[in-house]
Amino acid sequence: MNIHEICGAQPNSGRAMSAFRGPDRVRRVACLGTGLIGGGFVALFLARGLDVIVWDLAPDAKDRLDQLLTTAWPTLERLGMRAEDRGTLSWASTAAEAVTTADFVQESAPERLELKRALYASIESAAALDVVIATSTSGFSIADLQAGTAHSTRVVVGHPFNPPYLIPLVEVAGAVHTSREALIAAEAFYQSIGKVVIRMDHEIPGFIANHLQAALEREAMHLVAEGHATPQQIDAAVVHGLAPRWTALGPCMVRHIGSSAGGISGYFERFNLGSERSLSHHNPPEFTPEFIRAMEEGCRAMEDGRDKATLTAARDRMVIETLRAQRQAGLSRHGI
Hints:
Number of domains: 2
Order of helices and strands: HEHEHEHEHEHEEHEHHHHHH
Radius of gyration: 22 Å
Strand content: 5-15%
CATH superfamily of the largest domain: NAD(P)-binding Rossmann-like Domain
Shape: globular
Structural class: alpha/beta
CATH topology of the largest domain: Rossmann fold
Number of helices: 13
């Protein structure tokens, strides 16, 4: 059982020739920054057999990275990585030196705009022209990073979820001027190292997953602030209610197969008859025909020709495996 059984998504394959290096030509990755995100990427790249050259100006960077790798490696081994397949790690004295021989660049410097802009100015001419430069930023857009400078078409967002060596998701996005080939090359590379990639049509602040996470976190804060729930109750509701189901199905498909008739479009027809509007501090969008059509088309695509009974059975199998894993891990009532 894997995520594709439920959502019907399949990894991309058989890509055409590109102006940028594809996964088969990526053997050496430059990692700029070794904090929680950058260091997590270093761990993942090494575990996937890639050679990594690192740059970080922090005086304790080497010690912090060694500690992170020591923590991450047992987890990676449980995921099937082997020590004998591990790539090599080396350090560069400058960012430009790090990217000169790289086949892919992952920038994870601190979220300070002027620092990042100066960093890009220093590496743009040093990296080979067919190498994609990806940023882990969650707070800035490509347009922000390149404001006041020449717009490079190969700089893309490669935004992970922490820790990158464990959580599969990466969101790939770009500005209007970003090369589509660079986005495709980044997507293919991340997929080749086991990531699940959302390639966005355009940038928005925070991208997709952070928007969803923020909405849930803010609603939790409202419930505590208004005296409706304790933090313990909220975490228990997520870990033992939402999380097992969301392991198999996201909120769109939960509504789609849970609707008694008409799929998700039928749900929107009956929305005003229920109590949903009183269940959130966030007002829903206007249910325009265009919105409902977009929701229905997306859910039908995830159905991938399967009927409700088949989808429900697949969901149940996934939830069972999740519950077994929780019990085996000794999960407490509220989580770890």
